[in-house]
Amino acid sequence: MRRVSRIAVAGVATAALAVTVSACGSSSSSSASSSSSSGSSKGIGLAYDVGGKGDQSFNDAAYAGFQKAEKDFGVGGRDVEPQDGESDADKTQRLETLARAGYNPVIGVGFAYAPAVKEAAAKFPKITFGIIDDNTIKADNVADMVFHEEQSSYLAGVTAALTTKTNTVGFIGGVDVPLIHKFEAGFAQGVADTKKGVKVKSQYLTQTAEEGGFSSPDKGEAAAEGQIEAGADVVYAAAGLSGQGVIKAAAAHKVWAIGVDSDQYNQKALAAYKPYILTSALKNVQGAVYDLAKSVIKDKKPLSGEIRGSLSNGGVGLADSNPVFKNNATLQAALKKAEDGIKSGSITVKTS
Protein backbone atom coordinates (compact mmCIF):
# COMPACT_ATOMS: atom_id res chain seq x y z
CA MET A 1 0.00 0.00 0.00
CA ARG A 2 1.26 3.43 -0.88
CA ARG A 3 2.14 5.42 2.22
CA VAL A 4 2.91 8.86 0.86
CA SER A 5 2.73 10.52 -2.49
CA ARG A 6 6.02 10.32 -4.30
CA ILE A 7 7.82 13.60 -4.64
CA ALA A 8 8.70 14.08 -8.28
CA VAL A 9 11.54 16.55 -8.49
CA ALA A 10 12.97 17.63 -11.80
CA GLY A 11 16.71 17.07 -11.90
CA VAL A 12 18.50 20.32 -12.44
CA ALA A 13 22.26 20.83 -12.66
CA THR A 14 22.88 24.52 -12.32
CA ALA A 15 25.79 26.58 -11.04
CA ALA A 16 25.29 30.17 -10.03
CA LEU A 17 27.35 32.88 -8.42
CA ALA A 18 26.78 33.32 -4.74
CA VAL A 19 24.43 36.24 -4.80
CA THR A 20 23.38 35.89 -8.41
CA VAL A 21 19.69 35.26 -8.72
CA SER A 22 18.44 32.69 -11.21
CA ALA A 23 15.17 34.00 -12.57
CA CYS A 24 12.15 31.75 -12.78
CA GLY A 25 8.81 32.64 -14.32
CA SER A 26 8.34 36.40 -14.43
CA SER A 27 10.73 37.33 -11.68
CA SER A 28 12.23 40.80 -11.60
CA SER A 29 15.53 42.25 -10.49
CA SER A 30 13.96 45.39 -9.08
CA SER A 31 15.49 46.50 -5.81
CA ALA A 32 12.37 47.98 -4.30
CA SER A 33 8.66 47.35 -4.42
CA SER A 34 5.53 48.55 -2.68
CA SER A 35 4.89 44.87 -1.95
CA SER A 36 7.57 44.95 0.74
CA SER A 37 5.56 47.40 2.81
CA SER A 38 2.07 46.17 2.02
CA GLY A 39 2.67 42.50 2.65
CA SER A 40 1.35 41.54 -0.81
CA SER A 41 3.46 39.33 -3.05
CA LYS A 42 5.05 39.37 -6.48
CA GLY A 43 6.14 35.76 -5.98
CA ILE A 44 8.21 33.40 -3.89
CA GLY A 45 11.76 34.02 -2.73
CA LEU A 46 13.80 30.87 -2.11
CA ALA A 47 17.33 30.70 -0.75
CA TYR A 48 19.07 27.32 -1.01
CA ASP A 49 21.07 25.41 1.56
CA VAL A 50 24.65 24.18 0.98
CA GLY A 51 24.82 21.95 -2.07
CA GLY A 52 22.40 24.21 -3.92
CA LYS A 53 19.97 23.34 -6.66
CA GLY A 54 20.77 20.08 -8.41
CA ASP A 55 21.46 18.02 -5.29
CA GLN A 56 18.65 15.59 -6.29
CA SER A 57 17.58 15.65 -2.66
CA PHE A 58 16.81 18.36 -0.10
CA ASN A 59 17.24 21.53 -2.15
CA ASP A 60 15.61 20.07 -5.22
CA ALA A 61 12.55 19.12 -3.17
CA ALA A 62 12.24 22.78 -2.14
CA TYR A 63 12.68 23.83 -5.77
CA ALA A 64 9.88 21.50 -6.84
CA GLY A 65 7.50 23.19 -4.39
CA PHE A 66 8.68 26.57 -5.62
CA GLN A 67 8.02 25.65 -9.25
CA LYS A 68 4.60 24.20 -8.53
CA ALA A 69 3.56 27.31 -6.58
CA GLU A 70 4.70 29.58 -9.42
CA LYS A 71 2.65 27.58 -11.90
CA ASP A 72 -0.48 27.12 -9.78
CA PHE A 73 -0.68 30.68 -8.47
CA GLY A 74 0.52 32.50 -11.58
CA VAL A 75 3.35 34.34 -9.87
CA GLY A 76 7.05 34.79 -10.43
CA GLY A 77 9.85 33.89 -8.12
CA ARG A 78 13.54 34.09 -7.38
CA ASP A 79 15.71 31.23 -6.22
CA VAL A 80 19.19 32.04 -4.97
CA GLU A 81 22.25 29.83 -4.68
CA PRO A 82 24.50 29.69 -1.59
CA GLN A 83 28.16 30.61 -1.48
CA ASP A 84 30.94 28.45 -0.07
CA GLY A 85 32.08 29.70 3.32
CA GLU A 86 29.42 32.37 3.56
CA SER A 87 28.56 34.07 6.86
CA ASP A 88 25.23 34.62 8.61
CA ALA A 89 25.47 38.21 7.40
CA ASP A 90 25.61 36.98 3.81
CA LYS A 91 22.49 34.89 4.36
CA THR A 92 20.71 37.80 6.03
CA GLN A 93 21.53 40.11 3.11
CA ARG A 94 20.20 37.51 0.67
CA LEU A 95 16.87 37.22 2.49
CA GLU A 96 16.53 40.98 2.96
CA THR A 97 17.19 41.55 -0.74
CA LEU A 98 14.35 39.18 -1.61
CA ALA A 99 12.00 40.81 0.90
CA ARG A 100 12.89 44.33 -0.22
CA ALA A 101 12.16 43.35 -3.81
CA GLY A 102 8.65 42.34 -2.81
CA TYR A 103 8.88 38.56 -2.73
CA ASN A 104 6.56 37.02 -0.16
CA PRO A 105 7.02 34.47 1.30
CA VAL A 106 10.80 34.36 1.60
CA ILE A 107 12.09 30.92 2.51
CA GLY A 108 15.47 29.81 3.82
CA VAL A 109 16.14 26.16 3.00
CA GLY A 110 18.01 24.63 5.93
CA PHE A 111 18.66 25.20 9.63
CA ALA A 112 21.74 27.30 8.84
CA TYR A 113 19.37 30.13 7.91
CA ALA A 114 17.99 30.48 11.46
CA PRO A 115 19.98 33.59 12.49
CA ALA A 116 19.33 35.21 9.11
CA VAL A 117 15.58 34.50 9.14
CA LYS A 118 15.28 35.84 12.68
CA GLU A 119 17.02 39.09 11.78
CA ALA A 120 15.32 39.62 8.42
CA ALA A 121 11.85 38.82 9.78
CA ALA A 122 12.24 41.49 12.46
CA LYS A 123 13.09 44.09 9.80
CA PHE A 124 10.22 43.11 7.46
CA PRO A 125 7.24 42.34 9.73
CA LYS A 126 4.73 42.36 6.85
CA ILE A 127 6.64 39.72 4.89
CA THR A 128 6.16 36.06 5.79
CA PHE A 129 9.40 34.14 6.22
CA GLY A 130 9.79 30.38 6.25
CA ILE A 131 12.64 28.18 7.36
CA ILE A 132 13.08 24.48 6.74
CA ASP A 133 14.49 22.28 9.53
CA ASP A 134 14.51 24.81 12.36
CA ASN A 135 11.89 25.58 15.01
CA THR A 136 13.74 28.08 17.18
CA ILE A 137 12.32 31.30 15.72
CA LYS A 138 9.26 32.59 17.54
CA ALA A 139 7.75 35.41 15.49
CA ASP A 140 4.30 36.10 14.10
CA ASN A 141 5.64 36.31 10.55
CA VAL A 142 7.81 33.17 10.59
CA ALA A 143 6.79 29.61 9.74
CA ASP A 144 9.11 26.98 11.24
CA MET A 145 8.74 24.02 8.87
CA VAL A 146 10.14 20.89 10.51
CA PHE A 147 9.71 17.13 10.25
CA HIS A 148 9.77 13.88 12.20
CA GLU A 149 12.74 12.59 10.20
CA GLU A 150 13.26 9.87 12.77
CA GLN A 151 9.93 8.28 11.80
CA SER A 152 10.71 7.76 8.12
CA SER A 153 14.24 6.74 9.11
CA TYR A 154 12.76 4.06 11.39
CA LEU A 155 10.93 2.65 8.37
CA ALA A 156 14.21 2.79 6.43
CA GLY A 157 15.76 0.76 9.25
CA VAL A 158 12.98 -1.83 9.05
CA THR A 159 13.62 -2.03 5.31
CA ALA A 160 17.36 -2.43 5.74
CA ALA A 161 17.02 -5.13 8.41
CA LEU A 162 14.69 -7.22 6.25
CA THR A 163 16.80 -6.74 3.12
CA THR A 164 20.36 -7.32 4.31
CA LYS A 165 21.94 -10.67 3.62
CA THR A 166 25.19 -9.92 5.43
CA ASN A 167 23.51 -8.70 8.64
CA THR A 168 25.49 -5.47 8.29
CA VAL A 169 24.02 -2.17 7.17
CA GLY A 170 25.39 1.36 7.04
CA PHE A 171 24.33 4.87 7.92
CA ILE A 172 26.20 7.89 6.56
CA GLY A 173 25.38 11.34 7.90
CA GLY A 174 26.56 14.47 6.15
CA VAL A 175 27.37 16.56 9.21
CA ASP A 176 27.51 15.60 12.89
CA VAL A 177 24.62 17.79 14.08
CA PRO A 178 21.39 17.11 16.02
CA LEU A 179 19.21 17.15 12.90
CA ILE A 180 21.17 14.30 11.32
CA HIS A 181 21.32 12.46 14.64
CA LYS A 182 17.54 12.07 14.26
CA PHE A 183 18.02 10.20 10.99
CA GLU A 184 20.64 7.92 12.54
CA ALA A 185 18.65 7.26 15.71
CA GLY A 186 15.47 6.33 13.87
CA PHE A 187 17.33 4.13 11.42
CA ALA A 188 19.26 2.26 14.12
CA GLN A 189 16.11 1.72 16.17
CA GLY A 190 14.19 0.43 13.17
CA VAL A 191 16.97 -2.07 12.47
CA ALA A 192 17.22 -3.21 16.10
CA ASP A 193 13.46 -3.59 16.55
CA THR A 194 13.16 -5.65 13.37
CA LYS A 195 15.99 -8.17 13.38
CA LYS A 196 18.40 -9.06 16.15
CA GLY A 197 22.05 -9.36 15.28
CA VAL A 198 22.11 -6.84 12.45
CA LYS A 199 25.02 -4.43 12.89
CA VAL A 200 24.69 -0.75 11.98
CA LYS A 201 27.89 0.98 10.93
CA SER A 202 27.53 4.74 11.34
CA GLN A 203 29.75 7.50 10.05
CA TYR A 204 29.60 11.28 9.72
CA LEU A 205 31.44 12.92 6.87
CA THR A 206 32.34 16.17 8.65
CA GLN A 207 31.83 17.99 11.92
CA THR A 208 30.63 21.20 10.27
CA ALA A 209 28.76 22.04 7.08
CA GLU A 210 31.62 24.35 6.08
CA GLU A 211 33.82 21.28 5.67
CA GLY A 212 31.57 20.00 2.90
CA GLY A 213 29.60 17.24 4.60
CA PHE A 214 26.45 18.10 2.71
CA SER A 215 28.09 19.08 -0.57
CA SER A 216 30.85 16.57 -1.38
CA PRO A 217 29.85 13.45 -3.34
CA ASP A 218 33.46 12.27 -3.19
CA LYS A 219 33.32 12.17 0.61
CA GLY A 220 30.08 10.23 0.48
CA GLU A 221 31.50 7.76 -2.03
CA ALA A 222 34.63 7.15 0.04
CA ALA A 223 32.61 6.58 3.22
CA ALA A 224 30.26 4.17 1.48
CA GLU A 225 33.19 2.29 -0.05
CA GLY A 226 34.58 1.75 3.44
CA GLN A 227 31.28 0.52 4.86
CA ILE A 228 30.65 -1.80 1.93
CA GLU A 229 34.16 -3.24 2.22
CA ALA A 230 33.35 -3.90 5.89
CA GLY A 231 30.32 -5.94 4.88
CA ALA A 232 27.41 -3.50 4.60
CA ASP A 233 25.01 -4.46 1.83
CA VAL A 234 22.41 -1.76 2.52
CA VAL A 235 23.58 1.85 3.00
CA TYR A 236 21.36 4.75 4.06
CA ALA A 237 22.65 8.31 3.67
CA ALA A 238 21.32 11.57 5.08
CA ALA A 239 23.92 13.80 3.49
CA GLY A 240 22.41 16.10 0.89
CA LEU A 241 24.50 16.32 -2.28
CA SER A 242 27.09 14.00 -0.70
CA GLY A 243 24.51 11.23 -0.82
CA GLN A 244 24.98 11.01 -4.58
CA GLY A 245 28.42 9.55 -3.92
CA VAL A 246 26.95 7.00 -1.52
CA ILE A 247 24.46 5.88 -4.17
CA LYS A 248 27.23 5.70 -6.79
CA ALA A 249 29.32 3.45 -4.54
CA ALA A 250 26.37 1.20 -3.75
CA ALA A 251 25.63 0.75 -7.44
CA ALA A 252 29.28 0.03 -8.23
CA HIS A 253 29.28 -2.79 -5.68
CA LYS A 254 25.75 -3.93 -6.54
CA VAL A 255 24.39 -3.42 -3.03
CA TRP A 256 21.35 -1.44 -1.94
CA ALA A 257 21.22 2.29 -1.27
CA ILE A 258 18.39 4.02 0.55
CA GLY A 259 17.94 7.63 -0.55
CA VAL A 260 16.70 10.61 1.42
CA ASP A 261 14.38 13.63 1.26
CA SER A 262 13.38 13.25 -2.43
CA ASP A 263 12.43 10.05 -4.25
CA GLN A 264 15.94 9.45 -5.53
CA TYR A 265 14.93 6.41 -7.59
CA ASN A 266 13.17 8.86 -9.92
CA GLN A 267 15.89 11.50 -10.15
CA LYS A 268 17.15 11.87 -13.71
CA ALA A 269 20.70 12.63 -12.62
CA LEU A 270 20.77 9.32 -10.73
CA ALA A 271 19.17 7.22 -13.47
CA ALA A 272 22.31 5.14 -14.00
CA TYR A 273 22.11 3.95 -10.40
CA LYS A 274 18.36 3.46 -9.99
CA PRO A 275 18.44 -0.38 -10.03
CA TYR A 276 20.27 -0.12 -6.70
CA ILE A 277 18.11 2.54 -5.02
CA LEU A 278 15.71 0.44 -2.97
CA THR A 279 13.63 3.29 -1.54
CA SER A 280 14.04 6.80 -0.11
CA ALA A 281 13.10 8.19 3.28
CA LEU A 282 11.00 11.16 2.26
CA LYS A 283 10.17 14.40 3.96
CA ASN A 284 7.74 16.62 2.13
CA VAL A 285 9.87 19.73 1.76
CA GLN A 286 8.13 20.30 -1.56
CA GLY A 287 4.74 20.39 0.15
CA ALA A 288 5.99 22.64 2.94
CA VAL A 289 7.25 25.26 0.47
CA TYR A 290 4.08 25.02 -1.61
CA ASP A 291 1.72 25.24 1.37
CA LEU A 292 3.45 28.31 2.77
CA ALA A 293 3.29 30.03 -0.63
CA LYS A 294 -0.39 29.12 -0.93
CA SER A 295 -1.17 30.53 2.50
CA VAL A 296 0.37 33.88 1.57
CA ILE A 297 -0.48 34.27 -2.10
CA LYS A 298 -3.83 32.54 -2.51
CA ASP A 299 -5.41 32.16 0.93
CA LYS A 300 -4.18 35.51 2.29
CA LYS A 301 -3.82 33.79 5.68
CA PRO A 302 -0.08 33.28 6.14
CA LEU A 303 1.01 30.25 8.11
CA SER A 304 3.25 30.85 11.10
CA GLY A 305 4.66 29.02 14.09
CA GLU A 306 5.83 25.42 14.08
CA ILE A 307 4.52 23.24 11.25
CA ARG A 308 5.73 19.67 11.63
CA GLY A 309 5.45 16.87 9.08
CA SER A 310 4.94 13.34 10.38
CA LEU A 311 3.79 9.92 9.26
CA SER A 312 0.30 10.79 10.48
CA ASN A 313 -0.08 13.84 8.25
CA GLY A 314 1.92 12.57 5.27
CA GLY A 315 4.87 14.84 5.93
CA VAL A 316 7.33 11.93 5.99
CA GLY A 317 7.31 8.37 4.65
CA LEU A 318 8.98 5.99 2.22
CA ALA A 319 8.97 6.17 -1.57
CA ASP A 320 7.66 3.08 -3.34
CA SER A 321 8.83 3.72 -6.90
CA ASN A 322 11.13 0.70 -7.08
CA PRO A 323 9.04 -2.39 -7.91
CA VAL A 324 11.47 -4.60 -5.98
CA PHE A 325 10.55 -2.65 -2.85
CA LYS A 326 6.86 -2.16 -3.59
CA ASN A 327 6.16 -5.78 -4.52
CA ASN A 328 7.89 -7.38 -1.54
CA ALA A 329 4.82 -8.51 0.42
CA THR A 330 6.74 -9.52 3.55
CA LEU A 331 8.52 -6.18 3.70
CA GLN A 332 5.36 -4.20 3.04
CA ALA A 333 3.50 -6.03 5.81
CA ALA A 334 6.31 -5.28 8.26
CA LEU A 335 6.35 -1.62 7.24
CA LYS A 336 2.58 -1.35 7.63
CA LYS A 337 2.83 -2.77 11.14
CA ALA A 338 5.67 -0.41 12.04
CA GLU A 339 3.88 2.60 10.59
CA ASP A 340 0.68 1.78 12.46
CA GLY A 341 2.68 1.44 15.67
CA ILE A 342 4.30 4.84 15.23
CA LYS A 343 0.98 6.49 14.42
CA SER A 344 -0.78 4.91 17.41
CA GLY A 345 2.05 5.72 19.79
CA SER A 346 2.86 2.11 20.64
CA ILE A 347 6.27 2.71 19.02
CA THR A 348 8.12 5.82 20.16
CA VAL A 349 11.00 6.60 17.86
CA LYS A 350 14.15 8.03 19.39
CA THR A 351 15.61 11.30 18.13
CA SER A 352 19.16 10.84 19.43
Polypeptide structure, described:
The protein is an alpha/beta fold. The chain has helices at 35-38, 58-73, 88-100, 114-123, 149-163, 178-194, 217-229, 243-252, 285-297, 323-326, 329-344; strands at residues 21-24, 43-47, 76-80, 106-109, 129-132, 142-147, 168-175, 199-206, 234-238, 256-261, 277-283, 305-309, 316-318. The strands form two sheets. A seven-stranded mixed beta sheet has the order 1-3-2-4-5-6-12, with helices on both faces. A six-stranded mixed beta sheet has the order 8-7-9-10-11-13, with helices on both faces. β7, α6 and β8 (199-206) form a beta-alpha-beta unit. α5 (149-163) packs parallel to α6 (178-194) and α7 (217-229) crosses α8 (243-252). It is globular and about 55 Å long. Mean pLDDT is 89; it is low at 1-39.
Any key phrases for this structure?
alpha/beta, 13 strands, 11 helices, 6-stranded mixed beta sheet, 352 residues
